[in-house]
Amino acid sequence: QAVLTQPPSVSAAAGQQVTISCSGGASNVGMHFVSWYQQFPGTAPKLLIYDNSQRPSEIPDRFSGSKSGTSATLGITGLQPGDEAHYYCGTWDTGLRAGVFGGGTKVTVL
Amino acid sequence: QVHLEQSGPEMKPPGASAKVSCKASGYIFVDFDMAWVRQAPGQGLEWVGWVSSNSDDKRYASHLQDRITLTIDSSTNTANMELRSLTSGDTAVYYCARTPRGTSTLYGHWGQGTRVSVSS
Question: Residue B11 and residue A56: Cα distance in Å, rounded?
């Protein structure tokens, strides 16, 4: 049972946009920066967003992140077939004194 | 460029120990901490623990803390994970990940993963 809650799956047509929510609590999302990861089968996760909304230089601006209160959101615009992957949010939890992740969201491009 | 090279797959019987190493290159090793994350087959990411670059600070997932040890060998730029008293529930791919902030999940670089299989 993941500490952070994500929808199991989202889908949209190529060229459209999707948003993935990440819901937590006061001791995690509400207090700490959120990161987002993209993972393809059989490979290590890749950092997409850090510190709620910052993108590593190599990540296209089609990917965006935001946070409000105890929820964070990953947005993907101009959806491409290559965006089909699992996406995870993560943050620190002060109460648990540990890192925590969401259960992951499978993005499908129709 | 930054590279984290992990050791090879391990197959262990229940009750045994698994040791996974993560050799870093391409950056100043002591400038970053190392975290460990695992992923059971078909499951999501699970935070395992974190060790500071100088080994002064460590955090472990509460349900693993009695069985896990994370260490740093700065002479070889290597981070190590040992997990003892293995059960089938420990079967997973274990990743090391570099982080500038231990109390975060900001993992910009990951190792390729090491598969640990526990079976009799």
Answer: 36
Looking at the partner chain, which of A47, A88, A104 has a beta carbon nearest the beta carbon of B108? A47
Tell me the C-alpha distance between B80 and B11, whole Å: 17
| Residue B95 near chain A (CB below 8 Å) | yes
From chain B, the residues in CB contact with A98 under 8 A are 47, 59-62
Residue A88: which of B45, B95, B103 has the nearest Cβ? B45
pLDDT tens by residue, A7-29: 999 999 999 999 999 999 999 99
B104 touching A (Cβ < 8 Å):
yes
What distance in Å separates the CA atoms of residue B31 and residue B52, rounded to the nearest whole number? 9
Q: Which pLDDT tens digit goes with each residue over A72-103?
A: 999 999 999 999 999 999 999 999 999 999 99
Condensed to tens digits (0 to 9), the pLDDT of residues B33-68 reads 999 999 999 999 999 999 999 999 999 999 999 999
Alpha carbons B52 and B50: distance in angstroms, whole number: 7
Instruction: Determine the residue of chain A that is closest to B113 in CA distance.
Output: A44
